[in-house]
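RESIDUES AND SHAPES:
===
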Amino acid sequence: MLPSPPCSLSIRKCTVQSPDAAQAARELHAALDQPEIKLAVFYCAADMDLPVLAEGLQKSFGDVNLIGCTTAGEITPQGYLSGTVTGFSLAGRDLDVATRLIPLDPFDSVATAGEVSALLDGLGPRDGQPPSAGDTFAFLLIDGLAMQEELAVSCMHHHLQGIDLIGGSAADGTRFGATHLYYQGKFRQKVALLSVLRTGLPFLAFRTQHFVHSDKRLVITRSDPLRRIVFEINGKPAAREFARLLGLAIDELTPLIFATHPLVVRVGGQYFVRSIAKVNEDESLSFFCAIDDGIVLTIARGMDMLENLQEAFAKVRATVGPPQLVLGCDCILRRLEGERDGLQERIGKLLAENNVIGFATYGEQFNSMHVNQTFTGVAIGQPC
């Protein structure tokens, strides 16, 4: 019997900086086009002319499995940029990919369970075996303003049969007005795009955050979980009490303050970030994640974000070798913090050195959890 050929993956990456949407579509296709593309992914600035971009992408890519979303910044082969279109394409005989659109308005858990099962069935068996955690991972793009991430990711991961899932919530710069996802020739809202990828190459799903909990605890005493709004903390107006705990006035609560002082919740012995999005006129707080009455949170304190990322990628390299590609999702608040601290160029260089293509999100997903102020990713390694 002849030995099996080594696993291989053909990857093309690019960044397009033209503000003209039609030109950007042509340049993206020219850079990513290759024979037998199994998946192409792009991330674009939210203020681009999306209808024109969609028309150009459909004309250029045709029936290629192309997905994408709007961002709060793009992670490119040149590092962190804004106002671009960046992306990658994957091809190879060893690679199997399937993608489904999941409606979020309303979210139907029964229908979604069926879609996830159909995705896995669509990959078919390999060497007589169905897709499994050893050779398959899931990648999710989801509307960042539909406020359905918790329900959707919990349901999807439950039916993925132990397969790792990572993802990010589409963004709209710092405007928080409307987020869009691209699928089959159109930009859409209130949807999620779930892809499953099977490969014989080594890969690692991972997450990292640069915060540790402190002794400053607070209790959510009145909230609207569906709208992710907290009205009272410790029985007092939420923004006023949060500002008091930080020794600040309400008008000093800015996105950078929220980035510096996130809240964390303990789940299963691990801490997950629950970030604040903004202060409302009635002194309530809007969150990036669902929040509920009675939840005990801790104000976290930050560590060195660059050092934390360096450690994360050192672990990646120790596990799968130098990554050929990392599908990366990085929180908008991390981007703002990096810019404030003058770290963004060094962070961008580190991401480029590790072949990260991704975007700044309104939230990140890791397995069954929707989180904030976290970097989530899947690193695809070298052939064994």
